[in-house]
Design a protein that fits this description.
The chain is an alpha+beta fold. The chain has two helices and five strands. A five-stranded mixed β-barrel has the order 1-2-3-5-4. A hairpin with a 4-residue loop joins β1 and β2. The radius of gyration is 16 Å and the shape is globular.
């Protein structure tokens, strides 16, 4: 019986270690507004502006998120990236208001998820 309880505890820790996904954030964005979020996604589009870079990331389920970075991004379209930043309900980028944007604190290249369709 102890090994069964230990196995359940390990499974719960493993599931809680899985970070927030883009699809999870898109399902209930108000839950994450003004909070730090971390997620992994594949860079679909990248646009360079005067003092910032805009990225569109997609997760394995097709959920998409716009990320704004003030720092240069060391990744290219098609690569997987891990983003840490604050989700804001709206942000003015140049003269356009964009909704549900992550103001990135850190963006780094990463490997694709091992179990893409597990959760």
């Amino acid at each position: 019986m102890r090994s069964g309880a230990r196995l359940v505890a390990i499974a719960l820790v493993a599931l809680s270690a899985c970070g927030t996904s883009i699809s999870g954030i898109n399902a209930r964005p108000d839950k994450y507004y003004e909070h730090k979020v971390s997620f992994t996604g594949r860079i679909q589009r990248m646009q360079f502006l005067a003092h910032e870079t805009l990225l569109e990331l997609a997760d394995s389920r097709g959920g998409r998120m716009i990320v704004k970075s003030s720092e240069p991004v060391d990744a290219e379209v098609g690569e997987w990236a891990e983003v840490t930043g604050v989700l804001v309900p709206e942000m003015r980028i140049e003269d356009v208001v964009v909704y549900d944007v992550v103001a990135a604190e850190k963006i780094r290249r990463t490997r694709p998820p091992r179990f893409r369709d597990l959760m």
